[in-house]
Specification:
The complex is a heterodimer.
Chain A: H1 2-20, E1 29-36, E2 42-51, E3 70-76, E4 87-95, H2 98-103, E5 112-118, E6 120-121, E7 128-131, E8 139-149, E9 155-163, E10 175-176, H3 203-213
Antiparallel strand pairs in A: 1-2, 1-10, 2-3, 3-7, 4-5, 4-8, 6-7, 8-9
Chain B: H1 9-24, E1 45-50, E2 55-56, E3 61-66, E4 70-80, E5 82-84, E6 92-94, E7 97-102, E8 111-114, E9 117-119, E10 130-136, E11 149-153, E12 160-161, E13 167-178, E14 189-191, E15 202-203
Parallel strand pairs in B: 8-14, 9-15
Antiparallel strand pairs in B: 1-13, 2-12, 3-11, 4-10, 4-13, 5-6, 7-8, 7-11, 9-10
The chains are: A alpha+beta, B mainly beta.
Chain lengths: 214, 224
């Protein structure tokens, strides 16, 4: 009977600990584009999309700057050689929460939409591209379109939409993997307002109790 | 006119040769868009291997470079005994075969292929000893996509004896990833036979034959 109790306790503990891991760090997602070279052979290049410095947290004055740029890497899928010289444009979307995402039929139903943002190559880092931004807690998505010049010198069009994990229903077909949405950095605070204090470890709480007793 | 003295003729000839080389010799090398190079201020890793005096018996392998677990990007140079790609061809191939890819402790993760070579006629001494360049990896013209290992292998059926001045130079400019996370699978894959027989595919940007130019040379007026 004691063994059964022990096993149940362990299972319960694992379940509780699992639900406590709130801030998952997601890898970037990928979008593959297969092309045909002039010699008839096919190649695939890959756009890797996410945010810089994951996990991402929204701007909070005095605590976190919220600077999590859109991070785009373009590379040959098989060799992983970086591909420079892409000409890309980006539209970005913002939903405040999952309820808004659930109600929306399309990315353009987002609370905020900004279009025609040029994507910049990062100097000294071939194959790396970015759109700089300060973010707020919520669900971000990006429509990325333009041309990628492969090693054969030919420009190939790309056009796809990707959202952070909570908005993945808007992802274009073929987008694989995911990246984290923007969280509230205050969720990391400990102790925070509303936390139940322990009478043994909370010195201030103990002092308050002593005053009342006196 | 006093400059045109007999003792100055070698200088004049040298300057003329250099001028011709700079003006027309710039067409010698490919300029591949996929070569990553290194950032300014950083030194690439260079390995220079003398082959002179070595005789490679038929079927034997001479390992040149092993960057495991990293797969890398870089530039490869070979100076070795050569022969025409086909009878009467002015484009030369090495008698030895260059292979690259990954040799793993697990056979299933081993993948080796011949690498495409660009023949550099201007600095070759055909048919005695010739020079080729290769870009590692070469996403356009073929070969293994992820390279940790480079080897020479004698598939000619006869001993190959290397002469003074025969060398390999491997210049590694970037680590592209780890073969531990981007494994080859389904091996061992060793591709040694194709339409070129057991020899490397050879490209030549400077002969009259444009069918052997390969892909990816962004210009023929300069480069590496």
């Amino acid at each position: 009977m004691r063994n059964v109790t022990l096993v149940l306790s362990v299972i319960a503990a694992v379940a509780v600990i699992s639900t406590m891991s709130v801030h998952d760090a997601f890898a970037h997602g990928t979008y593959d584009k297969t092309i045909t070279l002039s010699n008839g052979e096919s190649r695939t290049f890959q756009l890797v999309v996410g945010h810089t410095s994951e996990p991402t947290f929204g701007n909070e004055s005095g605590t976190h700057d919220g600077k999590h740029d859109v991070d785009i890497r373009i590379r040959d899928k098989d060799t992983k050689l970086p591909i420079s010289g892409a000409q890309l444009t980006l539209d970005r979307y913002y939903f405040e929460d999952v309820k808004q995402v659930d109600k929306a039929d399309s990315a353009i139903d987002a609370k905020y939409v900004e279009t025609n943002i040029p994507v910049s190559g990062i100097f000294g880092s071939p194959g790396s591209y970015t759109v700089r931004q300060l973010v707020e807690p919520g669900i971000y998505g990006y429509h990325i379109y333009g041309n990628v010049k492969y090693f054969d010198g030919v420009s190939y069009p790309v056009d796809f939409t990707t959202f952070c994990n909570d908005g993945a229903k808007f992802n274009s077909a073929g987008f694989a993997g995911s990246y984290g949405c923007v969280e509230d950095i205050n969720d990391l605070r400990f102790p925070m307002k509303g936390h139940h204090s322990s009478s043994f470890n909370d010195k201030d709480n103990k002092q308050d109790k002593d005053k009342k007793d006196n | 006119m006093t400059f045109l003295k007999q003792k100055n003729i070698p200088i004049i000839a040298g300057v003329a040769l250099l001028t011709v080389t700079l003006v027309f010799g710039g067409t010698v090398f490919a300029s591949h868009s996929f070569e990553t190079g290194v950032s300014a201020g950083a030194l690439p890793d260079n390995t220079h291997i003398r082959l002179d005096g070595m005789t490679l018996q038929p079927g034997t392998t001479f390992p040149l470079y092993d960057a495991s677990p990293n797969y890398v990007a870089g530039h490869f140079l070979l100076k070795a005994p050569c022969a025409p790609v086909s009878d009467g061809d002015d484009t030369m191939r090495p008698t030895v075969t260059v292979v690259a890819g990954h040799v793993d402790e697990h056979n299933a993760a081993t993948h080796m292929e011949k690498i495409p070579l660009f023949y550099i006629a201007a600095v070759s001494d055909a048919p005695n000893s010739c020079i080729w360049h290769s870009h590692i990896p070469d996403p356009l013209n073929g070969g293994a996509p992820r390279v940790t290992d480079i080897d020479l292998i004698n598939l000619s059926g006869e001993p190959i004896t290397f002469s003074p001045g025969d060398v390999v130079d491997v210049n590694i400019q970037q680590v592209l990833g780890s073969i531990a996370s981007d494994k080859y699978t389904g091996g061992p894959t060793v591709k040694l036979e194709d339409e070129n027989g057991s020899y490397n595919p050879i490209y030549d940007l400077n002969d009259s034959d444009t069918t052997n130019d390969g892909l990816g040379h962004s210009s023929q007026t300069g480069g590496s």
